[in-house]
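C-type lectin domain-containing protein
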Amino acid sequence: MRLLVPGIVMTVADATIISELYVHRDGIRGVGEIAFTKEVSSQLECAALCLTVLCACYNLEVRNSTLTCTTLSTIREFTEQPFTRSFFSRKGLYQQLGFIRYKEQWVMARDPTLPRLTWDDSVAWCRSLPGSVFLPQTLEDFDWMVEIFRTKYEDGYMFFPLNDKEKEGDFVWVNGSCVCVSPAAAKNATQIRWHDGQEGAGNTIEDDCVAIESYHDYTLRVHACDHTHYAMICAGDG
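Structure:
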C-alpha cells in the first residue's frame, strides 16, 4: 500500500507501520493537541489518517475489539494508560526523553541520579529507548563525550563502547566492528584516547570492558564488565 501525502511518498508493507517514522509503545499514551479522534478498522488505517495531518503521535485504544484512533499534532507529555498502543514520531519521542542534537544525531547521557549499570546493561538500556550506543568517529567526538562526562557526572567512571570479550587484546566496538587487532593498532586509533599502557597490554582476563576514568585525565582504561558505572552515551535511531 502506498500512502500519498504532500511532499511524502511511503510504502507500508504491513500493519507494523512505517518504522522509519514512528516508534511503538504499549500502555503509554501521548497527550497533546488532538487533531481528531475516530473509530478505525485497523492500525494501518489509523497510521494513514495520522500521515494526512502529519501528526506527531497517534494513540490506538483497544477495547472490546473496538479500535479508537486519536491523532495528535503536538506532544506535551506521555502518560501510562492500559489498553493503549501509541506510535510517537521519533523526533517527538527523543525530545520528550531528553535527547539533544549533536552533529545531526539525537544523543543522550543517562540521568546521574538513576542507578549505575553494568557494561551489558548500559548497552541494553540504550537499545530500549529505542536507540543504540553512541560511537565516536573522530577525536572531536571523543572529546565531546569527555565534556559530557565532566559536566553531567561526578568523578568516577563512564562505560565506553569497546570490549575484548571474544579475544583478549582485540578490542571491538559494541556493534562488532573492530577498532584494532593488536595493542599497537589500538594505541594508534585516531578517535580515542587511551591511558598509557591500557591499549591491550595492561588488559587481563577479568577486565574485558572499557570505561572513561576521571581519575586518569578522562582517558580509557579496561574494567570488569560486571562493575556498575555511569552508562554509555546513547544515540537515537532516527
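Residues 139-152 form the longest helix (14 residues).
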